[in-house]
């Protein structure tokens, strides 16, 4: 169940609450066990699994993978206190929610804006909650909210995520603030409030669950650094398969001070983000060391982008057997094979690949002919491969699938993956050579080319007639026709493979 928290002390919150009730076929119920101020009295439920029809006019386009695991029942409760000062509202709901959505106003000098963030305090608790405390984050819900904001934002409204700030922090379940801002005009704007309401109601259609990826090994980063509006972390959740937990923005980190003077605060931020990885903006060597000491791997945005949705157990095995992502390791299409889907959970992922040396001379020649096609050929056949030149050119070693897997139809594959890669690279050579064949342990490439010495022996003068023959055109010399094939020879190159 998804718990929606409305604050009567926040007129934007009540406005979004009204729009939520207008947009779907809710059932009103009464809870006499709690005072109205504490979420009791009249409350509303929307049970889509039992036939509730969700958004009345324009819901989410498409259903995300895993949507069947997402909660699809809503319960909306209203409270008198301002959100940030509320004690934990979890117990007010008829059952324990999977997560809470606080619909709220956003205030700032940003113009019309839809935004969301998690709650917590790296330092003092001036704006609610407890000092050095964090509510559990729900990165999967945040991703879905941003997608909903993108779809429903009225003209003139921006979309953003914010760093972690303010209360409440002592929550029994994960929570996120979904906000409309940034001033009176937007708080009273039916279109802005309606956009937040639609994004919230779309959460089940977008498969919104607390975790991103495998709940037992979530694909989350905890973030540090940057401004209040966190564009680097927003790019990560928009453009990769990763979710973002708590973000300690610059002013919050200033309140934290030296991380080892408040070790429990850093521990709490990582734990509340359910993250084994940290993305740090800026140098911050002391913070990086403190995170590493806690077994949290500090990664860069390029690492997150390169890894994307590759199984994390497979990534760990490949970084051990080859080079690291930071040193240029990149992943190929075969990393998506079913045999690696549960890498690290059922057996050793390394059982599904073997490490080989890429055929250096053949690879270099292919790259010189068509670098893009060569990269595509390696990506199409490899699980992963090493690179040079800032990750742009394959070089060194690669992990290829072990023969005997199945293709996309489920049929058993019998071709040797290394031979398939060599054949693909040989295909690139055909853009330059007339004939390319596989002969033993080599690829042999042949091309017919103009032989100026042979032309000279037949009396062809240097100059335009040389050029014509080189271009494949016959010429006349002393009344005799000299054809291009008469003055050509076969040049051959062999590439070990």
Automatic annotation (TrEMBL):
Residue ranges spanning the membrane: these are: none
Cofactor: binding comment: Binds 2 Zn(2+) ions per subunit.
The Swiss-Prot or TrEMBL record annotates one GO molecular function as: D-aminoacyl-tRNA deacylase activity
Cofactor(s) recorded for this entry are: Zn(2+)
Pfam name, any one: tRNA_deacylase
Q: Which InterPro entries match?
A: Deacylase_DtdA_archaea (IPR018033), DtdA (IPR007508)
Q: What class of enzyme is it?
A: hydrolase
Going by the UniProt record, its keywords in alphabetical order are: Hydrolase, Metal-binding, Zinc
Catalytic activity from the UniProt record? glycyl-tRNA(Ala) + H2O = tRNA(Ala) + glycine + H(+); a D-aminoacyl-tRNA + H2O = a tRNA + a D-alpha-amino acid + H(+)
- Give the EC number(s) under which this enzyme is classified: 3.1.1.96
What GO terms in the biological process aspect are recorded for it? D-amino acid catabolic process
Q: How does it assemble?
A: Monomer.
Role played: D-aminoacyl-tRNA deacylase with broad substrate specificity. By recycling D-aminoacyl-tRNA to D-amino acids and free tRNA molecules, this enzyme counteracts the toxicity associated with the formation of D-aminoacyl-tRNA entities in vivo.
The entry sums up its family as follows: Belongs to the DtdA deacylase family.
- Quote the protein name from its UniProt record: D-aminoacyl-tRNA deacylase
């Amino acid at each position: 169940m998804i718990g929606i928290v409305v604050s009567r002390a926040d007129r934007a919150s009540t406005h979004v609450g009204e729009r939520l009730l207008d947009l779907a076929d809710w059932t009103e119920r009464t809870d006499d066990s709690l005072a109205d101020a504490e979420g009791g009295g009249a409350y509303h439920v929307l049970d889509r699994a039992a036939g509730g029809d969700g958004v009345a006019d324009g819901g989410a386009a498409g259903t995300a993978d895993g949507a069947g695991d997402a909660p699809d029942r809503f319960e909306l409760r209203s409270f008198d206190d301002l959100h940030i000062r509320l004690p934990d509202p979890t117990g007010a709901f008829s059952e324990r929610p999977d997560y809470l959505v606080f619909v709220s106003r956003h205030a700032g000098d940003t113009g019309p804006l839809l935004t969301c963030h998690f709650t917590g305090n790296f330092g003092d608790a001036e704006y609610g909650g407890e000092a050095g405390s964090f509510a559990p984050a729900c990165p999967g819900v945040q991703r879905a909210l941003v997608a909903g904001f993108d779809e429903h934002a009225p003209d003139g409204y921006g979309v953003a995520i914010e760093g972690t700030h303010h209360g409440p922090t002592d929550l029994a379940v994960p929570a996120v603030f979904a906000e409309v801002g940034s001033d009176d005009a937007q708080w009273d704007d039916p279109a802005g409030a309606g956009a937040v309401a639609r994004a919230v109601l779309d959460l089940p259609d977008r498969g919104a669950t607390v975790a991103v990826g495998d709940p037992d090994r979530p694909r989350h980063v905890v973030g540090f650094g940057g401004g209040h509006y966190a564009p680097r972390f927003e790019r990560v959740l928009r453009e990769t398969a990763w979710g973002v937990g708590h973000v300690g923005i610059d002013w919050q980190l200033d309140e934290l001070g030296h991380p080892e003077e408040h070790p429990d605060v850093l521990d709490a931020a990582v734990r509340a983000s359910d993250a084994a990885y940290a993305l740090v903006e800026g140098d911050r060597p002391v913070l990086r060391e403190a995170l590493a000491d806690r077994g949290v791997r500090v990664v860069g945005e390029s690492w997150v982008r390169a890894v994307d949705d590759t199984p994390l157990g497979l990534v760990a095995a490949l970084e051990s057997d080859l080079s690291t992502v930071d040193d240029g390791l990149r992943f190929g299409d075969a990393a998506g094979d079913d045999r690696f889907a549960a890498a690290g959970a059922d057996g050793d992922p390394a059982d599904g690949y073997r490490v080989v040396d890429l055929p250096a001379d053949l690879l270099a020649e292919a790259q010189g002919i068509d670098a893009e096609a060569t990269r595509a050929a390696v990506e199409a056949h490899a699980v992963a491969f090493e690179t040079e030149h800032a990750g742009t050119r394959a070089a060194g070693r690669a992990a290829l699938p072990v023969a005997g897997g199945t293709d996309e139809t489920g049929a058993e594959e019998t071709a040797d993956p290394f031979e398939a890669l060599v054949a693909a690279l040989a295909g690139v050579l055909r853009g330059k050579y007339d004939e390319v064949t596989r002969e033993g342990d080599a690829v042999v490439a042949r091309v017919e080319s103009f032989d100026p010495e042979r032309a000279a022996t037949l009396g062809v003068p240097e100059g335009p007639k040389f050029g014509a023959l080189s271009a494949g055109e016959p010429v006349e010399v002393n009344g005799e026709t000299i054809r291009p094939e008469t003055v050509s020879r076969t040049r051959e190159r062999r590439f070990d493979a």
